[in-house]
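Handoff note, outgoing to incoming analyst
You'll be picking up this chain. Sequence as last confirmed:
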Amino acid sequence: MFDQIFVCLDGSPSAEKILPLAQGIAKAKGANLVLLRVVEDTSEIASEEHYMRERAALFGGQIRFLVSPDPGAAIVGELAMNSGAIPALTTHGRTAWAEALFGSVALKLIRGAGRPVLVYRPLPHDMRAPAKISTVMIALDGNELSERILPFAVEIAKPLAARLLLVQVLRPGGQQTPPLREIKTDLLESSYLHAKAAEVRQEYDIEADWDVLHGEPGDAICRYISGMRDTLLAMTSHARGGLKRAVFGSVAAECIRNGGAPMLIYWPHSEVGSREA
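Most recent structure output, in case you need it:
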């Protein structure tokens, strides 16, 4: 589905942190690595070219300059002309609100790319993205919309020979929930993952492990992924609301803020079901 990875750079050391991961995925898949730099005026290209060529030589990529006062819109436009490319970037956000959390460029990419976006937000105590991926963890919620990330996640997992792991979180039923009902619910939800793993094996010819988590989805996923150093978390974001935080859903926001793992986030611009992710 993709044969190019566009790594979005802005000249800062932080933006470079996703480069080793993007390089590893591109190399395994035989995709082209393209380093993108958006400048406001053509006069800036000369001063930026040495830095970009240096990074390209180090990571085995090509360079491309775009001229625009709006980096997010420029990259979305470039993606529109390159259907086989996916964008990758480090985000510098620090808060739970969408634009500040993802950064304005990442926000525009996820909303406008029409395809998954590879995003990494470094945690303060661990600033490096993994250079390789040994597990691709896919967050599902039983909703058809959440499953739309599957083909993209498989496309990354296969050439990396990475383990594919399907997870679903059961929210707490409360103290009044009878134990027997909890057991039946757990069996029902694990049955969904078991069936989905069988579908993945049949459709994509790749084995998938699965696990049921318990708690609030964002917190449960972050706790589960903690310490899983070489893991890519893949999920569909359910974008429904007008509020900034609802743009990506509380689960995606929580995972990018506290997960510490690179994420493959897909917003398919449609609504199916009623859950947030």
